[in-house]
Amino acid sequence: MAKQPAGKNTPRQREQTKQQTQSAKAGKTDWVSKLDRWIYDHRSTLALGVLLILIGIGLFVAFISYLLHGPADQSVVRAAVNDSAQDAAPETKNWLGLVGASIAHVFVFRWFGVGALGLPVVVFLAGWKLTFGKELLPLARLTKGMLFFTIWTSLFIGYFVRITDSVSSASVWCGGVGYEVNQVMATLLGGGSIVLIGFMLFVFIIFYFDASSWSFTWKMNWPRLKPADTDDYDDDTLQDYEKEEEEEQPAPKPATNGKPATSPVAPVAVPPTPEPEPDVRPAPVAAPVVAAVASEPEPVVPADEPVRTSRIISFDDPPKNGKPVTATTSQGSDFVVKQPGETPESVAPAFDVPVGEASSDSLVAEHGPYDATLDLPHYQYPVVDLLTDYPSKGAQVSEVELTENKNRIEDTLLKFGIGIKKIFAEVGPTVTLYEIIPADGVRISKIKSLEDDIALSLSALGIRIIAPMPGKGTIGIEVPNKNREMVSMRSVILNEKFSKSNFELPVILGKTISNEIYIADLAKMPHLLMAGATGQGKSVGLNVLLTSLIYKKHPAHLKLVLVDPKKVELALYNKIERHFLAKLPDSEEAIITDTKKVVNTLNSLCVEMDNRYNLLKDAGVRNIKEYNTKFTNRKLNPEKGHRFMPYIVLIIDELADLMMTAGKEVEQPIARLAQLARAIGIHLVVATQRPSVNVITGLIKANFPARLSFKVTSKIDSRTILDTGGAEQLVGMGDMLLSSNSDLIRLQCPFVDTEEIDELCDFVSGQRGYDEAYALPEYVGDEGGQDIEEREIDLSNRDVMFDEAARLVVIHQQGSTSLIQRRLKLGYNRAGRLIDQLEAAGIVGPFEGSKAREVLVQDPQHLEEVLRKLRDQ
Ligand SMILES: Nc1ncnc2c1ncn2[C@@H]1O[C@H](COP(=O)(O)OP(=O)(O)OP(=O)(O)O)[C@@H](O)[C@H]1O
User: Fold this and answer.
1) CA-based, 20 to 30 A from 425: which of 267, 340, 595, 724?
2) Pocket test for ligand 1, best of 536, 717, 731 (most atoms within 8 A of CB)
3) pLDDT tens digit string along 324-361?
4) Which domains, from first to last, does the chain contain?
5) From CA 275, how far away is CA 270, in angstroms rounded?
6) CA–CA gap between residue 51 and residue 128 (Å, rounded)
7) CB of 10 shorter than 6 A to ligand 1
8) φ, ψ (nearest 5 deg) of residue 197
């Protein structure tokens, strides 16, 4: 692993540089990044959350107490302000003393009276959300409600205080605002004030509880509105109205007059709705379904029955408030569309393809496109200051060195009878390229055949002859610089080419001889094979690749599978497990070091690949990009297994080790993935010290068009990896050759130290992550045995959630682990165990690959019977 940077930087120099840069940084940006980190640190969020809960409770107690003892405390507060707080304090009646009385005096007496009680409720709920990471009640919606409650109550009570002329005794109930505003309204409107106050309540109710979804009958009779007039109508609705008008047949809507809604979602006993849903539809069967559905923030679109084009789709809530949205189809069945990003398994899109473009368009119009990043909405991309600022001196080649080399090249070539017309030098970070135009009549093949002799005569390490230079009629001779430039990771991350790159998976590979940054799109590569003798910069190279991805990608869009048979090379990335790593459901460690686990992981990736291909086929698209676009546009139904697909990058740090211990067992899945996985977003980066043919087999090699080599020990190794010599001539420390699309490019890999990686991982892991690493599909190897009976499920020791899980799958007629996981809020492992138990109990059928298991019990009554028997046993 990285021990020491490029030649010029001795540990001492580096330490000094680091100290200088650190003190420079400290002055300017340290406090900003510290503040950032503090804000996104779990501990500070927890502390703030608990503080807000305490403040919420405190304010509530203080306000209630003030309302009870108000008159007594008013004089105490005045005395404290005018005279001495110390003298006044003992007189206070408020349960929270003088402070409680003073705050309550302002909020209750001066401002809002009873209405002020809305404030502590909001503060408490905000604190709850910060502390527990989820909402007790929909916060945004409730805040709006409470704001209205505060002002309206104050006005309403103020009206009666004014007309009863009881300001001296009762003004504490309406507060100063309520009373004063009523005074003004009375002057302007007289008795009309109460009408205005009543009207305000009416307007609030119709917007807050979305009167548009109350009844079809209402809608039918309401005047037709243009889309510009309202947000609550979708195109379908308007078209329907227009059609009906044309036909002059105001036919009753099915849900009102037609057959009662028949939904496969039978009424279930579920906790009551947190907020009353005003539902005035005369649909007796639909009603319990509404109650059931509204309490669950999950889609309950009947899984097997495509929702037909909905004529009226109305949502009870504006899109951005984070509350589940209830929608109604013309069939009268209701379902909930969850806001994107509510939980890690956010499943916002609620329509399937059969619904048609218009419905998904209207969903997008209402809610905006699905955004996977909303699972971690506050995630901050790493700041560049995490990387060390090594002072860049540029390439250090003196005139003298250049002239010396030029003369030696001229002399050597002349010795072999090669005349030179012209010679140019281009100074790169590690080597200088001398480009030679040979004299007329000199054949390139002659120069090529003399390559080794010329190199020997020039007798410097790492001379590489490029004859001819691709696309030019010239010869290139690369001569290493005496003092090479160290390319820092920071400098390349800051480079515009990287920051502005819009590649799907941008990876920095290095700096070219013309000092340009070379960035590749791993998604297009589509896999990378990396070789290099020990100590030549492979680990640094992998770290550079990972750093570029982490700097550019949101955890929602990228998952890493890290295989590290050497056990220490990638260990640093353990910290970002809950952000970027993917692992097998049953494994403890996200970084895979054990060969058996590697085999399972590779096979699991193959299962993931097959699953993804099935989803692509189902969606009628050809690749991950088209799939995710369709999903983002809410045209794919998560209830049918559709989900946003993050890219998966598999990194294998040492293939040689694995090939020695597991041979074909790893070769086959690697080759399979390399052959097929590009379209579904799984990309491989495989590194090895030993690029021999029994490690990089023909099967593997054929499927890795992009190959990269650091210095290797022999020309044979160079040929194995690059199909040509040259890599043995490299000068080490990140000097490398990239072979891509039959081009061979010499690059200097940037340097990134383990300390920098450590800081980067700390920065990422200090932020809120997912509950656990991204779960790869379960793969049970030979030992596990696929047969449920062999795995001996003990039904006498059932999970406590067994009955609930059974009811869930029977109600939905869908035996899927992810359904159990989402709806019962369980981890993957536990949900997997539950589904195994359900299989053993004969409630669901056996595993069927990417499809959900068949549910063998058809109705809830039958299920209760089965459950009762199990209990009796
Ligand atoms: N891009 C680079 N720029 C400057 N120095 C580098 C670069 N890459 C590697 N080095 C130097 O080479 C040393 C070895 O690099 P690295 O640890 O990446 O080798 P490796 O090929 O992974 O070796 P091993 O396989 O034994 O782990 C580093 O400690 C560092 O001093």
Assistant:
1) 724
2) 536
3) 333 322 333 333 333 333 333 333 333 333 445 556 67
4) 42-208 (no CATH), 215-375 (no CATH), 399-480 (3.30.980.40), 514-765 (3.40.50.300), 783-872 (1.10.10.10)
5) 14
6) 10
7) no
8) -65, -40
